[in-house]
Amino acid sequence: MKKILYALVALSSIWMLAACSSAEADEVLEFHNDMVDYVNPRMDDLLELNDEILWMTSEEDALELQKNEIIPALKEIQDYIHSKDPKYEITKEYHELIRNWMDALSEAVHLETEAVEGLLAGTLTEDEAWELIRLSEEAVDESLKYDKQVYDKWEEIKEEYSFEDVE
């Protein structure tokens, strides 16, 4: 009888915890998990492609890989992030930081591609290309700042809602 009573108490505690979970907490956790499941593997793929570019001896081949694989993959990730429309303020704030991170990263890649393409095609002077590279580096710096803000925001959210990382 005691075992049944303990089981009922344990079950009711679980139900109470589930009932105490707010819609806001559910949304931000689901949003985060969706981002991790969708974005992280694609970013890993992009890092591998970037490594390939670093080892290429032909600037033309590197440019083609960037234009045909990296930029479309970034666009896909960017579109996915932009398609999200969270309801609650905490998720909206987190979403905005992630969106800004991806937009800055995408801008950096586009500027770099424009510089290399213009230089190779002869449509840009060396100074114009270097200016685009400088702007690309600024966009990378901006993306890194947003990346840090995304990390910090998630840490804040985890603390606020008592979320734990699961590996």
From TrEMBL:
<keyword id="KW-0732">Signal</keyword>
<protein>
    <submittedName>
        <fullName>Uncharacterized protein</fullName>
    </submittedName>
</protein>
<feature type="signal peptide">
    <location>
        <begin position="1"/>
        <end position="25"/>
    </location>
</feature>
